UniProtKB/TrEMBL annotation:
Residues 1-100 form the Reverse transcriptase domain. InterPro entries: DNA/RNA_pol_sf, Rev_trsase/Diguanyl_cyclase, RT_dom. The lineage of its organism: Eukaryota, Viridiplantae, Streptophyta, Embryophyta, Tracheophyta. This is Reverse transcriptase domain-containing protein. SUPFAM superfamilies: DNA/RNA polymerases. It comes from the Eukaryota.
Amino acid sequence: TRVIRDMYEGVRTKVRTVLGDTTDFPIDIGLHQGSALSPFLFTTVMDEITRGIQDEILWCMLFADDIVLIDETREGVNTKLERWRDTLETKGFKLSRSKT
């Protein structure tokens, strides 16, 4: 785990555009975009963190960094959404409310 932690410590990046590169800036949250290891790390961590709230039947699905919650009613989806939000936010994740 120390090797992985070292990969993410003090990371800086810049954005390349047709007008040139931006000045570099720190990456404080999230996974490295384009890293072959990032999807594996994300899936492993998400599976472990959400193990207790995943339903046995496929009423929730993880796709890369997206979560699909399914229920027969809007209230059921909202209840699941709150369970997932509470679980993820207590572990330091931030749920994008603009996509919900």
